[in-house]
Amino acid sequence: MEIVSIERKTFEAMVAKFDRFVSRMDTICQRHGEKTMGEWMDNQDVCRMLNISARTLQTLRDNGTLAYSQINHKTYYRPDDVQRIASVVEDRWKEAKFKGRTI
Predict the structure, then answer these.
(1) In the 8-state DSSP scheme, what is residue 37?
(2) Which CATH architecture best describes the domain 37-98?
(3) What b/e readout covers 20-48, taking b as 16+ CB neighbours within 10 angstroms?
(4) What confidence tens digit (pLDDT) does each residue in 67-94 have?
(5) pTM score, two decimals?
(6) Which residues of the chain have pLDDT under 50?
(7) E strands, 1-102, where?
(8) So which residues are the signal peptide here (predicted)?
(9) Are strands 69-71 and 74-77 parallel, antiparallel or unpaired?
(10) Which residues, in sequence order, are CB contacts of 39 under 8 Å at separation 6+?
(11) What is the pLDDT of residue 2?
């Protein structure tokens, strides 16, 4: 283990900058506090809501039909984006049923 020695003045300047950084982050978090992950939906929620398979959901992401965000390898969707494509999925279901297929 290596020990690094710095002057008190330098240490106090570093602590002051860190405190300002923490203060700015707190302000930003408070300003955007209403945007919690509780409002977002995961893959399972979307599949249940739209009555589609995980593979169909992947296709909707791949072709740009459904917007998404990824955090730590987990995919999330905004409920309003899912609502927006619900009619598209329903139309595909009707078309597939008319042709005797499933999606």
Answers:
(1) G
(2) Orthogonal Bundle (1.10)
(3) eeeeeeeeeeeeeeeeeeeebbebeebbe
(4) 999 989 999 999 999 999 988 888 877 7
(5) 0.56
(6) none
(7) 41-42, 69-71, 74-77
(8) none
(9) antiparallel
(10) 78, 79
(11) 92
Helix axes 43-50, 54-62, angle to 10 degrees: 100
Rounded to whole angstroms, the Cα distance separating 22 from 17 reads 9
Amino acid at 101: R
**Closest to 61 in 3D by CA, of 82, 36, 40:** 82
The letter for the amino acid at 86 is A
Decide: helix, strand or coil at residue 56: helix
Token couple for 16: 């002051």
Query: Domain ranges in the chain?
Result: 37-98
Enumerate helices (H) and strands (E) in the chain, giving the number of each.
4, 3
Q: What integer pLDDT is reported at residue 16 of this predicted model?
A: 96
